[in-house]
Amino acid sequence: MRSIDRKPWQVLSNLLVAVGGVGFLALLLWSFGLIGYYSATHPYRPSPERGWTFRLHWTHGAYGTFEENEQLLQLHSWGIPFIFVVIAGWSIQRFHEKNEPWREKQF
């Protein structure tokens, strides 16, 4: 019954915070999984016969290809839009809370 009492901005702000948070968490888990995979399967010395001559960032010394390193670094920049989505949802909540200071928080 609580969902009937909610205003559209409350639903939108909660949706934005949830989508942004879940997306960022999924991206973080994917990044840690990829770092773990590369650390476990790639050598800690260059292996020119396999093309693993580039030191991979975030793996504490494992070597791989330039493309694998770029994939690891791109995951960090993919998290920025999710952070902006969370900030947008949080800002909507704070804006409406600021305009109605006489209301108590409803949980």
Task: Tell me what you see in this structure.
- It is rod-shaped, with a radius of gyration of 21 Å.
- Helices cover 67% and strands 4% of the residues.
- It is mainly alpha-helical and 107 residues long.
| Uncertain spans | none
End-to-end separation: 13 Å
What is the 3D shape? rod-shaped
Overall strand count: 2
- Quick check: average pLDDT? 87
Largest sheet: 2 strands, antiparallel
Radius of gyration: 21 Å
Protein structure class: mainly alpha
Helix amount, in percent? Answer: 55-70%
Estimated share of beta-strand residues: under 5%
Strand order within the widest beta sheet: 1-2
Count every helix, treating DSSP H or I runs of 4 or more residues as helices.
Answer: 3
Secondary-structure element order, N to C: HHEEH
Summarize the structure.
By secondary structure, this protein is mostly helical. The protein has a domain at 32-99. The chain has helices spanning 2-5, 8-41, 66-99; strands spanning 54-55, 63-64.
